[in-house]
Write a structure and sequence with these properties.
The protein has 346 residues and is α/β, with parallel strands linked by helices. It contains 12 helices and 8 strands. The chain has an 8-stranded mixed beta sheet with strand order 1-2-4-3-5-6-7-8, sandwiched between helices. The protein is globular, with a radius of gyration of 20 Å.
Length: 346
């Protein structure tokens, strides 16, 4: 009886792990690496580097994606509208996309910030405007504190930077555990996660419309791979303690800083994080856009680019542009919504 039970469990584990391995390979075939791996000291970071064009009118730009993401997310938002204007570096954070995880320090924003600084050195980028979305905001803040000489300016987009009430979702806590986390991510994450990609990406954009081709272009399914999901979970679980210990140091940041956020962000509450940054970073400018959710990089790309221009010393009226974006969002909200054309590759 016991032997039969163990045999059944063993078969279940083998089948589950085999399915996850099969789907991992399928996801990677569907979304191959579009960047280049660079050794940054015993492990490799993946990034897509756009060299400085002859027509450049902006300093180098370094883009840091959020939790559950990869470099494609910021690349699809900004590469085309900024073409010909700047050297750009779109980074897969350590353990995400196609980057290797590296050392234990990379489970914290400080370690990831240091890794990005070393990558900049390898790419010959002496300093840059650092753009961080969501979780990437915590890394951008850490970068500015640890590498001020490399920070020409900071642009935070719906950043996660301060302690919050309520903790983290249970599946992150479970996935980050040593043994149970391995079982959970190899047995359940891919079959469950593939069913949640559609609604999950819709909720990230809520109350705004998600681009119909967002899934196909940004490869959110890459995070469902077991080791990547575990890395992502560790990042999220560790974030609360990190920002609790370091948020009081944001006053040390001297780089010009702009924060763009939405008052309808259900993922990262602007009243805690964005307002907290505006309070803590001397001289920072806060742009709050009504009816904007968690994706200013996509919904108000024009405002974000204008913020980069202002950080580069070009005069811009960001409050006026934000007001125009609010009118645009309200107009889109009042129009009938067409059926979703989203494509999944699962």
């Amino acid at each position: 009886m016991i032997d039969s039970l163990f045999a059944t469990v063993a078969v279940f584990l083998v089948l589950g792990a085999g399915f996850s391995a099969y789907k991992t390979r399928a996801i990677e075939r569907a979304y191959p690496n579009i960047g280049e791996l660079t050794d940054v000291g015993g492990y490799r970071l993946n990034a897509l580097h756009v060299p400085r064009p002859a027509t450049s009118d902006l300093p180098p730009l370094v883009f840091i994606h959020g939790a559950s993401g990869n470099l494609r997310d910021q690349f699809e938002a900004f590469a085309a509208p900024l073409k010909g204007r700047a050297e750009m570096l779109f980074v897969d954070r350590p353990g995400h996309g196609y980057s290797e995880r590296g050392t234990a320090e990379n489970a914290l924003p400080s370690g990831q910030a240091d890794a990005i600084a070393r990558l900049m050195d390898k790419r010959g980028i002496k300093s840059a405007i650092i753009i961080g979305h969501s979780f990437g905001g915590a890394i951008a803040a850490a970068f500015a504190m640890r590498h001020p000489e490399k920070t020409e300016g900071l642009l935070f987009l719906a950043p996660a930077t301060h302690p919050w009430p309520g903790g983290v979702d249970w599946y992150y806590t479970l996935a980050a555990m040593p043994f149970l986390g391995w079982l959970f991510t190899h047995m359940f994450v891919i079959p469950i996660g593939l069913r949640r990609v559609e609604n999950g990406t819709l909720s990230v954009f809520h109350p705004n419309e998600r681009p119909a081709d967002y899934i196909a272009k940004t490869a959110p399914e890459l995070v469902l791979r077991p080791q990547t999901f575990r890395n992502n979970a560790a990042d999220v679980v560790n974030l609360f303690g990190y920002v609790s210990a370091h948020a009081s140091r944001y006053r040390e940041i001297k780089a010009p800083t702009i924060i763009i956020t939405g008052d309808s962000d259900d993922i990262v509450l602007e009243k805690l994080h964005s307002r907290g940054l505006a309070r803590d970073i001397p001289g920072s400018e806060l742009i709050t856009i009504r009816n904007l959710g968690h994706k200013p990089d996509y919904v108000t790309t024009d405002v974000a680019i204008a913020a980069m221009e202002q950080l580069a010393g070009q005069p811009r009226d960001l409050q006026r542009l934000a007001a125009q974006a609010e009118i645009r969002i309200a107009r889109l909200k009042s129009e009938p919504t067409p059926p979703s054309q989203a494509v999944t590759t699962s």
